[in-house]
Write a structure and sequence with these properties.
By secondary structure, this protein is mostly helical. The chain has five helices and no strands.
């Protein structure tokens, strides 16, 4: 979890830069999506749940929530990241929120905090 937190902090530093600075949203979104997938995979592996070897967030999500409906809480956050990716791939950047980079990083942080809290409550953290 500490490694993932550090990766999110790096993204937070990117979006905290000077206003008006150009951010490579495509690359930032790939990193935020990778973090989301890594969070779900790490949590699942720690619980002994098998996970697919994939970078497809929706496929990872399906395996992640299987058998535990309480994990559906991450669904909307993952779908938000997938929506941003779809907007980029379809050339529909006008459908993105006003500050998509900030939203993507905040979504990754939200997932981290949710799963970190669950790990803490389940006494999975050292």
């Amino acid at each position: 979890m500490a490694d993932i937190d550090a990766r999110i902090r790096l993204l937070e530093a990117v979006i905290a830069g000077p206003e008006g600075r150009e951010i490579d949203f495509d690359a930032l979104l790939a990193q935020a999506s990778g973090i989301a997938g890594d969070l779900m995979t790490a949590y699942a592996h720690h619980a002994g749940k098998p996970m697919p070897e994939t970078r497809d967030l929706l496929e990872t999500l399906r395996a992640f929530v299987k058998g535990d409906p309480s994990l559906n809480a991450v669904r909307d956050n993952v779908r938000e990241l997938v929506y941003y990716r779809n907007c980029l791939e379809m050339g529909k950047t006008d459908a993105l929120p006003v500050r998509p980079a900030h939203m993507a990083v905040r979504t990754a942080r939200h997932l981290y905090l949710y799963l970190y809290t669950r790990c803490s409550q389940e006494h999975r953290l050292p």
